[in-house]
């Protein structure tokens, strides 16, 4: 199995608070906070692209790793909000990092993309060498499409996260991952080209409330580790109320679930890696201590990954 | 208690709000249940009636009113 060497993140400088958003959407700032746990989010500048943010997060990750970009063997980039149908932002991001020629793969998966990317990197690192996973989203342009839906517009923000997966060394070893997909729900959360984001929130919450605890149980049971033994849970930051529900279902104290959604909102695929980067900066992996990553998103795709500090 | 009375008790306990007298009225549109109340209702139904709701059946429309819930529970019995 491969290793998590370092994480990085980038968030745009523009802060959009609930008061500004509430005025635009015709709702109350407190309502936004109550239904989502989100107080503010970041919006990218008008000309700032998914690749711009991805390259910034990748650079931050490599600085934390103290790693020479020329030694990267593969780039995997997850984004559900890329500006073009093709090419995706993976190759462009790699070129900006000065590693044109290195294979670069796009995962247009939205929220679950970063964890699926990590799981793939775990298997591919042995063949390609160090793998850089980046997840970047410019959701502010997506939610601005008319007609705007305040139930979804309040949730999302922009940002990017990165992780370097190394075949032989790192802060934590990837032990196992469980991945699942069910296209029967493709229409419940989707983004068509040039159309507004469609999210059937009730179905998404209902499914995520079941599937995320279930996949974490699946992962931990087959690795003979009870939920209470996990040092930290790093989840896709979708909604604070959902995180609280997952903690309750697993019978694990909420303070084991790192949360930064109050400051960034839901940044789709980027959120889990941004959270991981900030968690590493504040506490980080401890030797032999297990950490669980978990996601749920459009597709539906969902999964969990277990890493243990080295 | 009838099945519908047992369902009513569950919804009232989860929502902590008065439930419409009309069993066909939408529990969502009437403001009784929100997105986060629904998973609790489903879990409580499973416990009360000893049924397992498979993920494929986790469709809010099946749990939109007391009548719909009763119909679903009876189909699982």
Task: List the main descriptive attributes of the protein structure presented here.
heterodimer; A: 310 residues; alpha+beta; nine-stranded mixed β-sheet; two-stranded antiparallel sheet; 11 helices; 13 strands; globular; B: 77 residues; mainly alpha
Can you describe this structure?
The complex is a heterodimer of chains A (310) and B (77). With 310 residues, chain A is α+β, with helices and mostly antiparallel strands. In chain A, 37% of the residues lie in helices and 25% in strands. Chain A is built from 11 helices and 13 strands. Chain A has helices at residues 18-25, 29-36, 50-65, 89-96, 113-128, 139-143, 150-153, 201-222, 240-250, 261-264, 270-282; strands spanning 3-10, 14-17, 40-43, 74-78, 104-107, 131-138, 158-166, 172-181, 189-190, 198-199, 232-235, 290-297, 301-309. In chain A, the strands form 3 sheets. Chain A has a 9-stranded mixed beta sheet with strand order 5-4-6-7-1-8-13-12-11, sandwiched between helices. Chain A is globular and about 55 Å long. The mean pLDDT of chain A is 96. By secondary structure, chain B is mainly α. Chain B has 3 helices and no strands. Chain B is globular. The model of chain B has no long low-confidence stretch (mean pLDDT 93). The chains are: A alpha+beta (310), B mainly alpha (77). Chain A binds chain B through residues 35, 182, 184, 200-207, 209-211, 241-242, 245, and chain B through 28, 34-36, 38-39, 42, 55-56, 58-60.
